[in-house]
Amino acid sequence: MLNPDLKLNPKLFDQDVEVKPTRHGYGDGLVELGEQNPNVVALTADLAESTQAHRFAEKFPDRFFQCGVAEQNMAAIAAGLGVSGKIPFMSSYATFSPGKNWETIRTTIIYNQSNVKIAGHHSGIVTGPDGATHQATEDIAITRCWPWIKVFVPCDYFEGKKATIASANFEGPAYLRFTRDKTPIMTTEQTPYEMGKISTFWVSDNPKAVIFGTGHMLYYALVAASELEKEGTNVLVANVATIKPLDGQTIIDLVGKTGAAVTVEDHQVEGGLGGAIAEFLGKNKPAPMEFIGLQDTFAESGKPKELIEKYGMGKEAIKQAIKKVIARK
Amino acid sequence: MIEELHDDKLKDLELKANQIRQLIIESLVEAGSGHSAGPLGMTDIFTAFYFHILNHDPKNPDWEDRDRLVLSNGHICPVRYAAMALSGYFPIEELKTLRKLNSRLQGHPHRSALPGVETTSGPLGEGISQAIGMALAAKLDNKKHHIYCIASDGEQQEGNTWEAVMFAAKYKINNLTLVIDRNNIQIDGFTENIMPLEPFRAKYEAFNWKVFEVDGHNIKMFVDAIREARSVFEKPTAIIAHTTPGKGVDFMENRFEWHGMPPDTQDVKGAPPKGQQTKKALDELRTLQGKIVSEHQ
Fold this sequence. Notes:
The complex is a heterodimer. By secondary structure, chain A is an alpha/beta fold. Chain A has helices spanning about 20-35, 55-60, 70-80, 95-100, 100-110, 140-145, 155-165, 220-230, 250-260, 275-285, 305-310, 315-325, and strands at about 20, 40-45, 65, 85-95, 115-120, 150, 175, 185, 200, 210-215, 235-240, 240-245, 260-270, 290-295.
């Protein structure tokens, strides 16, 4: 059942569950930060509305910098602002930023220890009809390998807003991952949120495996878990909202209880959430694992739900992975 | 306000430049690797910055109202380190740790390693943008300090450079002065062979910058150009400083072979044999006083 302590959305499993893009959480969080702190500034590279930075721009025009289609320049300007007492939030599509400008970020923001928050939008294959050029499916891998950065992957609108606000509460670089498509609201405003903590959204007696999900894919994991329970297989579903730092203690606890793990992400299975958990378990608590995500391929144009099915990332694929991982114990 | 440079101060700066060239050669030889030509070519300009232009406090490198000097082409950092040491940021003795384990003097400069280094740099084309970020922050905070950025000519080939140049013109970043080291060499050869930059001045003017051109070894001329650039209100300013790579060491001057290595690591055509290069370079420097000014005037 849904963890009663977390005040999750009671209508989560309804047919007409409310949907909203996580990027709206970015826009709302950014405006709230702008009101609270005059040092918060925002930059974008010709994607103000798409990344929802336009809302900040309308309210605080003097603190907003439109860089044009120039992601490297945006990153290095943000770096200069960030070492000068500002808290810059820079947004673009994740394939371009932190994709195209990866080295610029590495040198001028990360190694330079500048207080910049990098918002990567249009992540995952749920970017849909735009096609694989615009579907960021490597961004977790290329950000979490940087020293010192914190990597946030919010699961829904509310968490998107909370993660945005949380990222301003520490000094140093952060990566925030957002999606374009409207995705189900799983949490509520009251759901506790703590950076660097994994929380168990689905609890059950005598669980046989744990699903570690991140981002909007957590919804498919929860649907799979609820169906599996009706079919007699109990599992846990944990929300990994922060990929770095990784909440190792909770991973050990949950794998200790279940003895097997499935990771679920809208990202290449190499280097993302699955990679992060496999690295951790390999060192600390080896256990059988299965990986849901893009399997060494690019996706294509299509509707988000069609793509999730075609690329083997939907609830049926998750259920199969659970059965497989339990059989391997 | 930057004061006009008078003759007695000029003499003093020329002596300092000579000292800095010596420290550059000694620290590079001690390191056994690093770039020679660029640092020697930019010595007169760094001398002007650290001993006349910058409003700074070497004993308080994080002073909020200091002028910022951003070095975009980080590989010429031996000249920055030498100028910083000589002006009191750290003991001159520490220059011997350049490029060595546990040193604050990283092979390419790192902000967190050494107070007074404004940015981490090395990868090219990123300095102007960072300087713009600092300039925007100063404007937002109503601060009066000025941002200077030193860039190389080779890194003008980076797309990021022109992204920054466009942005600065759009936002009329007038609290930033860019100094471009036009020494015509890069690692693989002469810039005009590798990827031509000319007509160079016209490019910046077409991007709506105010451009000055100076002899980068004439300290007086450079200070005058900085003073004039500071008075421009309506647009960003760039000073193209024509320099001689390897300046001060005859066998290095204008030879791109010396872009990326110190004396006595290789035999180079037209230079003394390996093993005698350091001594020859230092000997030449000792006779340098006054020479740099007269030959360019």
